[in-house]
Every structure is written in C-alpha cells, then in structure tokens.
Write a structure and sequence with these properties.
The structure is a single chain. The protein is an alpha/beta fold and about 425 residues long. Helices cover about 35% and strands about 15% of the residues. It contains 13 helices and 17 strands. The protein has an 8-stranded mixed beta sheet with strand order 1-17-16-12-11-10-8-9, with helices on both faces. A hairpin with a 5-residue loop joins strand 14 and strand 15. The longest helix has 17 residues. It is elongated, with a radius of gyration of 25 Å.
Length: about 425
Amino acid sequence: MAYRLASALRAGSCLLATSVLYACAGGPYAPYQPSSILSLQPPPPQPNPAAAPPAAPQSNLKVAFLAPETGPESDVGATLVNAAQLALAAPGSPMLDIRDTASTPEGAAAAATAAIAAGDQLIIGPLSSRETAAVAPIAAKANVPVLAFTNDSSQAAPGVWVLGSTPEEQFRRLLFAAHDDNRSHVSALLPQTPYGDEVVAALGQAATQAGFPTPNIVRYGDDFSSINQTVRDLADYADRRAPLDEKIREARAKRDAEGRKEAADLGKQPIPPPSFDVLVVGATGQELNEIESLLPYYDLTPDQVRFLGPSGWAYASGLGLPAIAGGWFAAPDPALRAQFVAAYSAKFAAAPPVIADVAYDAASLARVLAAAPGGVTPATITSQAGFAGVDGVFALQSDGHVKRGLAIFQVHSDGTPEMIQPSPQSLAAPGT
C-alpha cells in the first residue's frame, strides 16, 4: 500500500501545493511556548552562501544515517542525505556516518550492523517499513535508538520511533475535531489492505480518546462489486427507505388524484439519515472516485454526514468530488515549511520533496540531543516539551509513537483543499 512504499513519499513531493487556500479559522489552541518547545527549523538562507562562516567543531555524538544511495529508491536517498546535511550544518552538530541500504531490508540490516560496529550511538532511517523491521532487532540488541522515516505505525516500539505522519496521528486529530463539531457516531469504510488494518487500529484508539462510541467499521475488497455492496450495506439503504416506500404504495393504492398527489409529494421527501454522522473513507485516487459516485445513490450526503479521509486527499484537486464536499483530512500546514524550503532551495538549487522534511527533523533532533545534558537517552528523546519541526510541533513517546500537531483541511466539490483549522502550536492541544 501507498503508506508503506517510498514511491508514495516521492509522489507527495508537492504536498498541498498552490491550490491550498489559507483560511484563518482556528481552534482553542494553547499559545506557542518557545521556552519549552525546541525549534528544529533552519535559519533563513544567507544571501551569499559563499560568504557563510566556516563550520564550527562537531560534537562527539556519532550518528548513523541509513539511506538508499543505490537501488530503485536512490533518488529519494539523495534527497534524504541533502536534508540531513543541511540540518547538521549548524554549529555543534554531530558528524553523519552515511550508510547505503541499497533499497532493501537486507541492505538496511547490513548497514545498521556496520554502523553499530563503528560505534554509532543513534540511527536515523531507514526509509521503508520493511527496512525498519529488519533494522529494529539489531538496534535493540545494541541499545541504539532508531529514528525511522516510515509512517507504518506497526513498526513503532520502545527504541524505534516512526517519524512519518501516520493514520494514528491523522485520525486522532480528525475525531477530536469532529467531536467538537457535535458529531456523535462514527462509521468507517475501509479497504481490506494493510493500510486499512492500520486505520482500524487508529480509529479504535482515537474514538475512545475523543469520546465517541466504538466505531462501526466495514471493509471492502478490490473490485467495484465489493465496494458497491459494502457501501449499500453500510448505508442501510433498504431499511431506511422502506417506511417511505410503504407510504408511497399506500397513497397510490387510493387510485385517485389525491392519492397520486400524495405519492408524488412523498417521493420528493428525503429518506431518514443513517445511524452515523461521521464516515471515514479510507480511499484516494480512482478508488475514491468510485466510492464517491455511490454515496449519493445510497443517500449518504454531506448534509447528513461529515466525511473524513487520509492526508492523500490533499492531491484530489481536479478530481471532482461533490459527494464528499465539506469532508476533512489532517495534514501539516504547508506554510510552516516555507523557511526549510527556502534554505534547501538556496543550497541545492531545487525545492525539497515532502519526505525531506522528515529527514531534516530527524537530523536536527540528533543535533539537539548531542547538546543535551547526558546526550542520547530515553529521557532526552522523549522530552514531553516536544520540538517544533518543519511540519509543526511533535513529541516522541516512550512506545515509539509520535504526537504531532496537524492542521485540518476541508475538501471543496472540485477536490481543492482549504485549511480550516491551523496546526496547533502546543502539544497540549486536543487531538495531538
């Protein structure tokens, strides 16, 4: 699935590009606390990079950086390395020990083994879920923390942090916002895929945290027939329509002008709403188009239901999605990365793709840890004050999961997203 493949990260290189409309609606967020949240953002780019002062001495912390320098993901690997080197150009930064994973789990395992043998005290990377799974036991045996780039939350564990934006983070933010919107019951329409499995787990936790009853979750297969039947069953279309149809039949049975008029009037009435007022739709692209075409047919409409979806809805501009107009997804505010984009572009003469954000933040975090009293320890890594990264505030939890401040976007009928709630500036905000 896309959420596990590096190709999806590469495809997301223009997250919420110029089509985003920056609305100013906000939520009840706590104020930014620069004294407690450490900023990982780069300084503004120098007008003349050649005039920059020489680099300061490096710290004693040895950091392994596992990236695919060869293999099918080598272009992504080059971007990751660029972002990390930009982050560690600051004074007091540790030196990077860059190790090639060759875009494979076996290569990642070999790279981690070599890095640990060389005395590296922290591992940044690798890129994918499968590579992370291969590195984790090696790092755990040596008691070396791992800051992985994957967004597969199943890889999170004590000592292994998943830095990619996960379904867990996204749907926690969305369900808290839906609860504040006075919604009361959640259903979900999810694919029978590993990504769907992740969302099932995420929704169960998020619903409890946000104060919802246990969600009603249905799963569909990989063909249109399965999608159609699943949407129909979820909508409970037949039972919702049955009482109205019965009244229409009774009116027609009168066999007079009054009965015909009554039947016609009844035919214009909407059927009762479904038993839920929030529907999570775990689809993007063509699959989303197919589901979207079925929703109004089974009377699941935006005036009855708030649709919620994955951050991949950011790329729906131009698809035409009137049936989910007003739907929400959670993602970083793209305006937050402007300073990073400027610094990266000034150094490498190209704009960074979104995956570079994660590499920059991981390397910046290594710089912060190198300067912390005691160096790299569970306490310094999991500081609950958190960090202000390229994509907003975040904090690493002891179980390998991450709390992250995400903005909420609303989808217009043509698929264009508009930010309606900004990213929180504090980890005390609901849904982080």
